[in-house]
Structure formats: structure tokens, C-alpha cells
């Protein structure tokens, strides 16, 4: 019965190491997605420290690939030193992912204040004639999130750009995508997106943080199972003289 349990632990451990390789790719993808999305919204959120969880996630993903390699070799060869190293590294990565979760929640809570503090300045600096990076970011966000203005399209009336153009219209990025003849005129508000961008930008950034948090939590749970299986194999290998190797003479036990 004990031998059956330890064989099962070894089998699960090998399978988990394969999952670690897949997890490495997923975590790196999540981290890269955060970076790419932040680049689209960075004018609305100036705190670059928000990227710390993404940096850690990418580092953890890279480390997980190495962990999977160590774990597979240590499990197949039944290396006591290798398994001990595997458990220690997994523990360190687990602690790191807990830190990622905590930081994710901290920065997620800060998103609304950060956006509220910077979005007014970004809109006031809009230049539709010779658009700079911030102006292009506004047009991008309004098209992508289907919004107009900070709280609604009427916010444009207080901007420098609106007062300079004197044509009683908002940027074309405020026009509903289905309308081809929209000019952005405030005399036809039904042609414009009615929802403001601030709430949607906050929601988008908070969703990104939740992706990081859930990814970290999911793989932290997998790592706990990996540590448990490795500890079972390690302890039984030390105490049980009848312990069989997973591979003996090139064949599976």
C-alpha cells in the first residue's frame, strides 16, 4: 500500500513538472500582456510600480521552466539532493507568488485614485490637429473602450482643444463605430458614446491586476501539491529500504 502511494506521488510529481513547463509559458504570457496593456494606458496611470507584479510574474515563469527541468530529472533519477533542491526552490517561488498576490491587491486598490489624478491633465493636453502620444492614447482608449470624455462627452467642452477648434464637436474617436457619417458634433449626441472613459479605464486596469492575481494563486496551489509530492518521495526514500526507483536499468519500476 505504501509503495503504491509513493509510486503515485512520483507519477503525480512527473506530471506536475510537465504542468510547470506549461505554467512557465502562461505566466510569461500574462506578464507580457500586462506590459503591453500598460503601454496603451500608461498616460492615465503614471505609477510605474504597478508593473512590479508583472515583472515578478515573468521572472517566476522563467524560473518555473528551470524548476520543471530540475524536478523531472530529480524525480526520474530519484536524486535526494535534487528533490531537496526542488522543494526549496518551489518554496521560494511559492513565497514570491504570495508577494505577487499581495502587491496585486495593493496596486489594484490604488488604480482608481491614480487614474482620477491624471486623466484630467491628459484630456486637457489633447491635441487633435498634431496629435502627440497622449492624444493618440485618448483616441485609442475612446475607440477601444467605446467611451467619450472623462465622465461623458460633455467633458470635452471644458478642454483647451474644444475651445480652440470652436466647432462644437468632440474627437471622431467618440463616434459610435457603426456610424460612418458621424462628425463628432454635439448637436447629434446620439451618434456619440455616452459612457465616460474614467470608469472604464479603471475597470480595465483592475481586470489586468486580477489576471495577475489569479494566475499567481492558481500556480501557487499547483506548487503546493508539487512540494507535497516531492516531500513524500524524499521522506520515503530516506526511511524505506524497500523503496524502488522510478527507473531501474532503463525500465520503469
UniProtKB/TrEMBL annotation:
A GO CC term assigned to this protein in UniProt: plasma membrane
Gene3D superfamilies xrefs: Tetraspanin (1.10.1450.10)
Cellular localization per UniProt: Membrane
The name this protein goes by in its record: Tetraspanin
Key words, A-Z: Glycoprotein, Membrane, Transmembrane, Transmembrane helix
Chief location: membrane
Membrane topology: Multi-pass membrane protein
Domain of life assignment: Eukaryota
SUPFAM superfamilies: Tetraspanin
Family according to the record: Belongs to the tetraspanin (TM4SF) family.
Subunit structure of this chain's protein: Interacts with claudin-11/CLDN11 and integrins.
Gene: TSPAN3
Lineage start: Eukaryota, Metazoa, Chordata, Craniata, Vertebrata
InterPro entries for the chain: Tetraspanin/Peripherin (IPR018499), Tetraspanin_animals (IPR000301), Tetraspanin_CS (IPR018503), Tetraspanin_EC2_sf (IPR008952)
